[in-house]
Amino acid sequence: MSTATKTPxxxxxxxxxxxxxxxxxxxxxxxxxxxxxxxxxxxxxLGRYQNYGFGEPxxxxxLFIDNGYLLVAAVGATFVILSGGIDLSVGSxxxxxxxxxxxxxxxxxxxxxxxxxxxxxxxxxGGFLMGYVIHNFEIQPFIVTxxxxxxxRGLCLVISKESIAIDDSSVSSMAQAQAQLGxxxxxxxxxxxxxxxxxxxxxxxxxxxxxxxxxxxxxEHSAMLMGLPQGGTKIAVYTVSGxxxxxxxxxxxxxxxxxxxxxxxxxxxxxxxxxxxxGTLLTGGSGYVVGTLFGVLVLGLIKSIIQFEGTLSSWWTKxxxxxxxxxxxxxxxxxxARKKT
Amino acid sequence: MTTTPRxxxxxxxxxxxxxxxxxxxxxxxxxxxxxxxxxxxxxGHLYGSLVSIVLFGSPLILVAVGMTLVIATGGIDLSVGAxxxxxxxxxxxxxxxQADQDSLAGVFLAMGIGLVAAVVCGLWNGFLVARMxxxxxxxxxxxxxxxxxxxxxxxxxxxxxxxxEPYKLIGGGYWLTLPFSIFVVAAxxxxxVALTRRTALGxxxxxxxxxxEASRLVGIRSMRIKIMVYVFCALCAGIAGLMISSNTSxxxxxxxxxxxxxxxxxxxxxxGTSLLGGRxxxxxxxxxxLVIQTLTTTIYTIGVPTQTNLVFKAAxxxxxxxxxxPKFRTKVFGGKFGSGSGAKGGGAPAxxxxxxxxxxxxxxxxxxx
Lengths: 341, 369
Hints:
The structure holds two protein chains of two kinds. By secondary structure, chain A is mostly helical. Chain A contains 14 helices and four strands. In chain A, the strands form two sheets. Chain A has a two-stranded antiparallel ribbon. The radius of gyration of chain A is 20 Å and the shape is globular. In chain A, about 50% of the residues are buried. Chain B is mostly helical. Chain B is about 65% helix and about 5% strand. In chain B, the strands form three sheets. In chain B, strands 1-2 form a two-stranded antiparallel sheet. Chain B has a two-stranded antiparallel ribbon with strand order 3-6. In chain B, strand 4 (about 175) and strand 5 (about 180) form a beta hairpin. In chain B, helix 3 (about 50-70) packs parallel to helix 8. The two termini of chain B are about 25 Å apart. Classes of the chains: A mainly alpha, B mainly alpha. The interface between A and B is large, with 44 and 48 residues.
């Protein structure tokens, strides 16, 4: 795959870099590592749980069905992290969207087709506001999106302290709709998630906007000196993230068919973890959205394996995620250290 | 606004805005609870809203004080909530295994185990940040994600309840008519202030935060300082973890210290410490933590539905951050406002946009906190 910003800095070293150094210098390495990890985990799972039906295609497809919302959220987070920022409000916006949707559909009686654009608009507007404050008042993204985290989680509770179940027939028919693939099926949520991924791939790698995101993440000052409209790009990046979070919230609503003020608590961390495991540099400017897909799949596979194992408890998910996160951060570190010399 | 020199000197003090916010918040309570400031003596214990604000705010103050030093070095520690959970989980599970839960030796040993675990977490964070050169927000994210899993692993996913009189003292007991935790907090704050303001340690921390590379070149062992502040921060979080689990007589891997890292960062920011590092104020942080606790209490007492708590907090974060942003002050106040609580980090004492405005030309360029 080609990126516009990819002009390998071909360091004129005194000696030709060793093969190990060359390998570490390749920015596709983390994606390859993650993909390999996924494959190895899958094969191990296949070996261990063959008799329990791990090998069935539907188990694989379920990874997309069960993690579609996380994929969408992580794609949004990829934009922000590529630009060198961070968005902590993701989980709260998802939770708020489930709540808003459930409330509008159940308590206000609005049809779901009207609710969907409202929810997406609110999420995107929230992201826009955060981006506006970050850019115009030069406050760190971390603290502004932290305020967003508090705000949206608070708004969830303002709507209702109780969870709201969605009984609306059009919602449940949407949630249960399946696309047959011959070997199995995908839910609407999974398909939307894959479409979002494809769009993000196109935008990041083939459009002017995508190039600006990479440029700003690579070096904001150079980007500014080059005359790139960094303000607009930054605000747009947070708007994209807000939109993706709201869309993820809608998919989560479909998946779980209720709104709850505590839904998706801490999911921003899952999203960030998926992006990092997918090989995107947290300092910005380097990474692929395809890596994010593998990051989400790895996290999803951990959950499936824990389910198949039966004796392991859910908290092992957190520990495994942390260990993976650590490993990939250290790989990133080794790579960037190599580039500097 | 009349700006007599004295008034300006007052508003320029780094504690002015945090204290002003705290006073306003406290006063808001008076119309709703007229006896808000009264303190009663019952059963030899002092009771009153002010006492409970300090009591319930104790863990937050501890965590926030540790966080202040980390932020002063230009870092951040997201793992404190998980450390709170791990410490509580280890200590409670050790005590609950004892035949005699009231045995002093057992309780001390349990607390020791918990605090050692906290220190190990701090060492790990410090190692990643200082030795491996990983961004603090990311390095500490690892324990933030994995730590709660570990805590649940220790408690086996259960909420471990204990019944130990001596242990109850730390978070829920009284001593000399006051809640014991107030003394713990006072001791930690006093030691921190003494170490950072009576020795050169504070200066070294600020220097590392201002410019780690320059500090290293002038001979400051910035790596060691960084590791030290992360260990200190984790230790503070560990003590807070003891306090929380002692107060509830239970260890809850999932919920103990949930969101406390965010509240602590908020307290530090309200206290006037710049997130960019290079300058800190422990006093400001204590006031900041009290502001947050008072806000929570106020929301309870004036009868606003408690669920709006988070919305208020968000509003406070936004307002405080906007006031701290030089760009915002220039745009909104046109530079007429003193650069009071939040000039940019001490590493950059040069003119911020607000400073360059003619009205503040005589203002001191650098604050000594």
